[in-house]
Q: What sequence folds into this?
């Protein structure tokens, strides 16, 4: 069952709406993301899942708020958000190593002048977290889809976020890669105090890992435990037979 | 300038460098080439090839407006016009759902048409043809001074903002989640390209200016594995091509800008062959 109140910290999305012209893309979204929970957002194509994430990132105009309440009860703090994009749409021939991508994100020193030992050490530490330490000097375009997703995950964890947003992180990744990605995420949830929000099409592995599932189609259709949502008639209506 | 001339006479006593205008051109190349080498890396990363071409075309309208207003030196009219165009394209691009290609294409064709209409009134287009081909050998010491200023401007921008620019070029949402303003970064960068393209166009020429922004990085991508190598190779290719092109144009009596581009293309083909062999 869902916990109504979180004792420690949580992030709240309140009355979030996005309109484009006269069309409501998403409307009146209210969700609580508890620390240590993995919340999965599911829904058919065009349901507004990615729009919800982008609104939470502050990337598109929206009404409503995203608030973070820390363990000591301070409200209205802007949470640190870690984000793993759906798929990096980049030119595979781009000359950029994994270390370059990290150094550009976490250090002020321009990457084209190289980087210092301290940065290298920090990058190694970040990559070890997702078992990608071996790839530090690899060209990004040479990584497999699964490897790239884990690198992006490591990047999203530096600095350590309050909320981790994952947009279809395993679409187009093989079964083994998906398993590995999920188990890495599960471990994170145990080791660090953060809320994980995952947008997904994948309904096979989800029930095993998600603490809470939200069915979205413009508005929230139903939310609760994976069992509850997956057996809900709205889910069958919108997502087909499971 | 006298100091530069005597340095050249002492350390590089070659025939092609005996004339002062060749010495001027060499000095200009030594600053222009690395500037384009640096900018080129991000133009190619951000797939801005088409955009920089549009900016080049827009200078024609800038010249025309300069002529209409009776400004003696149209460079300033050109710079203002192309910077405005760059900002407009950024804004339209941000707020529109059409593809960037289409938007840029519309602006590009419109500005080249307006420029041609105004300049060709009464059939006097021929005198503006230097803008199409460019004439590096006519560069004056004052103009070299401006190029040196631009070089340092780009260098400072590259030192301060490069990391943010790199993240934006990878993924905009990722940049957003890391509190980087995508719109600001893109606008500053496009304005910078607009300025450098416009200032250089009278020496390089509207028809080939884009090669300067594409070929160094395109060549470098064939060999580089990381950002540092990418920059080093790009700048070296730009400088070497510049010098080789200048020398070749002296002996061939050809237009310098175009000769430099031919040198760049040879580097590109050579590195492409190396890359292909490597991947076998």
A:
């Amino acid at each position: 069952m869902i916990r109504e109140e979180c004792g420690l910290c949580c992030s709240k999305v309140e009355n979030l709406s996005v309109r484009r012209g006269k069309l409501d893309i998403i409307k009146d979204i209210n969700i609580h993301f508890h620390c240590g929970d993995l919340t999965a957002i599911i829904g058919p194509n065009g349901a507004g899942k990615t729009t919800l994430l982008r609104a939470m990132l502050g990337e598109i105009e929206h009404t409503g708020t995203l608030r973070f309440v820390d363990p000591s009860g301070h409200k209205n703090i802007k949470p640190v958000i870690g984000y793993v994009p759906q798929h990096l749409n980049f030119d595979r021939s781009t000359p950029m190593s994994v270390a370059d991508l990290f150094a550009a994100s976490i250090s002020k020193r321009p990457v084209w002048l190289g980087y210092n030992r301290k940065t290298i050490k920090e990058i190694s530490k970040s990559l070890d977290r997702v078992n990608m330490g071996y790839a530090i000097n690899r060209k990004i375009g040479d990584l497999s889809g699964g490897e790239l997703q884990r690198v992006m995950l490591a990047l999203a964890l530096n600095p350590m976020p309050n909320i981790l947003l994952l947009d279809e992180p395993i679409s187009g990744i093989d079964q083994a890669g998906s398993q590995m990605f999920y188990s890495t995420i599960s471990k994170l949830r145990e080791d660090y105090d953060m809320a994980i929000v995952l947008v997904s099409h994948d309904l096979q592995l989800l029930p095993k890992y998600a603490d809470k599932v939200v069915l979205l189609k413009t508005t929230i259709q139903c939310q609760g435990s994976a069992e509850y949502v997956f057996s809900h008639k709205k889910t069958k209506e919108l997502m087909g037979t499971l | 300038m006298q100091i530069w001339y005597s340095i050249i006479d002492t350390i590089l006593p070659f025939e092609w460098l005996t004339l002062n205008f060749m010495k001027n051109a060499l000095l200009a190349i030594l600053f222009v080439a690395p500037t384009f080498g640096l900018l080129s890396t991000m133009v190619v990363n951000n797939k801005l090839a088409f955009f920089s071409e549009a900016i080049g075309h827009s200078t024609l309208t800038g010249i025309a407006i300069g002529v209409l207003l009776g400004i003696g030196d149209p460079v300033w009219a050109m710079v203002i016009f192309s910077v405005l165009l760059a900002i407009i394209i950024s804004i339209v691009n941000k707020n529109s759902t059409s593809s960037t290609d289409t938007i840029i294409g519309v602006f590009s064709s419109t500005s080249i048409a307006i420029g041609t209409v105004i300049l060709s009134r009464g059939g006097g287009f021929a005198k503006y043809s230097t803008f199409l081909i460019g004439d590096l050998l006519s560069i004056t010491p004052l103009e070299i001074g401006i190029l040196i200023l631009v070089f340092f401007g780009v260098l400072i921008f590259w030192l301060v903002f490069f990391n943010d620019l790199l993240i934006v070029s990878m993924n905009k949402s990722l940049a957003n989640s890391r509190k980087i303003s995508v719109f600001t970064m893109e606008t500053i960068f496009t304005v910078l390209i607009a300025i450098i393209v416009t200032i250089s166009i009278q020496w390089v020429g509207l028809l080939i200016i884009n090669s300067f922004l594409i070929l160094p990085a395109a060549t470098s991508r064939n060999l580089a594995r990381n950002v540092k190598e990418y920059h080093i190779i790009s700048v070296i290719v730009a400088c070497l091509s510049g010098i080789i092109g200048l020398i070749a144009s002296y002996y061939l009596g050809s237009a310098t800008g175009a000769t430099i581009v031919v040198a760049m293309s040879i580097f590109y083909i050579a590195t492409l062959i190396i890359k292909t062999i490597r991947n076998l």
User: Anything to note?
Assistant: The domain at 7-13+21-80+170-242 of chain A is CATH 3.40.50.300 (Rossmann fold). The radius of gyration of chain A is 18 Å.
